[in-house]
Description:
This protein has helices spanning about 25-35, 45-65, 80-95, 110-120, 135-140, 180-195, 200-205, 220-235, 250-260, 265-285, 290-300, 315-325, 350-360, and strands at about 5-10, 15-20, 40-45, 65-75, 100-105, 130, 145-150, 155-160, 165-170, 335, 340-345. The chain has a seven-stranded mixed β-sheet, with helices on both faces. It has a two-stranded antiparallel sheet with strand order 7-8. A two-stranded antiparallel sheet has the order 10-11. It is α/β, with parallel strands linked by helices. Nicotinamide-adenine-dinucleotide binds next to α2, α4, α5 and α6.
Amino acid sequence: MSTSKVKVKLSDRSYDILIGSGLIVDSGRLIKASLPNASRLVVITNDEINKLYGRNLKTSLKEAGFDFAIVTVPAGERYKSLTSANKLYGKLLNFGADRETVIVALGGGVIGDLAGFVAATYMRGIPLVQIPTTLLAQVDSSVGGKTAVNHRLAKNIIGAFYQPQLVIIDPETLRTLSARELRTGLGEVVKYAFISGDPLFEKVKSVLPLTDNISDLVPIIIDCCRFKADVVGEDEHDLGRRAILNYGHTIGHALEAVAGYRQYNHGEAISVGMMGAALVARAKGWLSEDEVQDFKALAGAAGLPLTMKNIDPDKVLEHLKHDKKRTKGSDNFVLLKGRGKPVVSSVDPRVIKETLRCLT
Ligand SMILES: NC(=O)c1ccc[n+]([C@@H]2O[C@H](COP(=O)([O-])OP(=O)(O)OC[C@H]3O[C@@H](n4cnc5c(N)ncnc54)[C@H](O)[C@@H]3O)[C@@H](O)[C@H]2O)c1
Ligand SMILES: [Zn+2]
């Protein structure tokens, strides 16, 4: 199987995202090739993923001659915490990790964010390699250097911008993912289809609804990574253009929170958020009815929701206001002026209120 390479070009350095079926079994060699001085590694993963992919990774790291340890945290968003990070610092110290030791994050966005945060902070930063195993992590969270843990009062509130040295994406890992976990990743894929424009939109449309053939997704994963890499390269620290990656996320985040992070997972919530953003853009005359229908059809084919069920729209509005305070009152609604033309715009609170009602 062929391996594709996407480069993330930062102001001071660049790194590769390697994408190819079966790459996990080759990861030892790939890590050695991009970090020639590395000899010691600590793999951070969770128990579920370790059972599925730990053995293959272990064999590959052994073959490449690494001295390594595999450490696990329990599965789940609630373990993306300072408590987990603290336990991991202890494991790193026991292993004798120094500034040359490499952290390998094997897992979905939870592991990637947590292990990334630990890599960013242990000894003020040690090298990091991401091996994302969920669709969401492969198209989004493993690329771009946002790392974080949650606080009891707010998600992702403690973190650092910390770029990996290498990202290894093996789409074969998606075969063991549940349908719902695949769907949450498709939420981000649909987002890229709308913010990046017609070529990706057409590609995504041609593979939905998904068949069992995971390899259909490979060219799409490559395109999503390429798009995100370009945006991150232009705005590593999220001061401008990177905001477009939050398409659908303003309402989406509020919905996730109001629904207690259970009824809607991230991709499902941002799908509803994108529906809201599409309605606002249509009201402004920026999106045509056909484009709104295209969104509905694509999200529908991905199995994603377009409305919020059993949710009080006023609670979502309250949450949006609360969020706005935290972002110092800035208006961070991403809207489309047509497919592939995202802009950041302010929206009249009355329009938001009305839109939320339309989503119920
Ligand atoms: N850093 C960023 O830029 C960024 C962007 C988006 C989301 N995130 C974060 O990502 C997290 C969500 O990530 P996620 O959706 O990947 O969820 P996740 O990491 O919780 O993974 C979902 C579930 O799938 C399991 N799993 C992972 N890979 C598997 C595989 N190949 N086969 C079978 N099961 C597998 C995990 O053990 C877990 O139970 C959130 O914490 C979110 O804040 C970060
Ligand atoms: Zn997202």
